[in-house]
Amino acid sequence: MDPETKNKLILLHAALMVFVWMLAVPVAMGMNMLARKKGKTWGPKVHMLIMTTAGFVPFTISAFIAFGISGQLKLKPHSGIGTALSIGVWSQVMLGTVNHLLFRYRRKHHCLPPKRPWNNHVHIWLGRLLLFMALINIPLGMRIKKATMPLYILYGIWLLVLAIAFLWLAFLSEKKQDTVEPDKEVEKMAINEAKA
């Protein structure tokens, strides 16, 4: 691969990863936290939609670009963290899907647990860990490309904005929701079965 093409692919990889980890993932996590704090049920759906379209798809494209450019597994910090992030993200997608299917099953059969189940806690804490790792990995990538000081300053300012937003969400008083809204499709099926 010629150096000019390789450089363009590296910049595309960087742009996609910055978009995913500094915008899409924080927005998806923040929207879900906000909905939960306000007692709204739209949070998980918005989270899944953003994570699938603006998170997982660009992340996967960017990861394949990185693996294609390097051609091998490198044990350098940026590459190692990036590989761990890839494994973690694809695991998160599977875990999130399982969590969603379990929730729908439990809601349909009226056996929702009184508190958040352990598998949800694993998904939440693994997501936080992956975000933290990615936010460490971004400046490592910037260092490889010899980014200028203004880029580091912008990165730091944006991290401060994210930290303030997440602290605000964390300390926002939570509106308790007594019940989960029933699934409209399940209700319709139950009514139709009762009529038959």
From TrEMBL:
Matching PANTHER family: CYTOCHROME B561 DOMAIN-CONTAINING PROTEIN (PTHR47797:SF3), DEHYDROGENASE, PUTATIVE (AFU_ORTHOLOGUE AFUA_8G05805)-RELATED (PTHR47797)
UniProt source species: Rhizopus stolonifer (Rhizopus nigricans)
Domain of life, source organism: Eukaryota
Transmembrane segments: 12-34, 46-69, 81-102, 122-140, 152-172
Protein's name according to its UniProt entry: Cytochrome b561 domain-containing protein
Keywords for the protein's UniProt record, in alphabetical order: Membrane, Transmembrane, Transmembrane helix
Gene3D superfamilies: 1.20.120.1770
